[in-house]
Amino acid sequence: MKTCCRVCGEEFPEARWKLGYKFCMDCNKRYEDKREQSRCVVPMHKSNYILVTDKDLLTGVNNKGGLVK
Questions:
Q1: What residues does each domain of the chain span?
Q2: What's the pLDDT at 30?
Q3: pLDDT given at position 7
Q4: 64 bridge partner residues
Q5: CA 38, 67, 6, 25 torsion: positive or negative?
Q6: Residue 54: closest CA among 68, 65, 40, 44
Q7: Distances (CA, A) of 46 to 53, 65, 67
Q8: At residue 11, what are phi and psi to the nearest 5 degrees?
Q9: pLDDT less than 70: residues of the chain
């Protein structure tokens, strides 16, 4: 699998991609400086609440059975 930075297109280690990083180290520093931190807590169906820090996780999160995309 080829892992490339979403900003500059430079390749970076696949292990970093598996940890959830989508940017190389240089672009990540620039991106984090500009990004506003946003978090929200959402209820799971017949379960507990979860802390969501990534907007992609909200897609179908409360669909009676878990994460559905």
A1: 1-35, 36-69
A2: 77
A3: 85
A4: none
A5: positive
A6: 40
A7: 21, 9, 13
A8: -75, 145
A9: 1, 33-38, 45, 60, 62-69
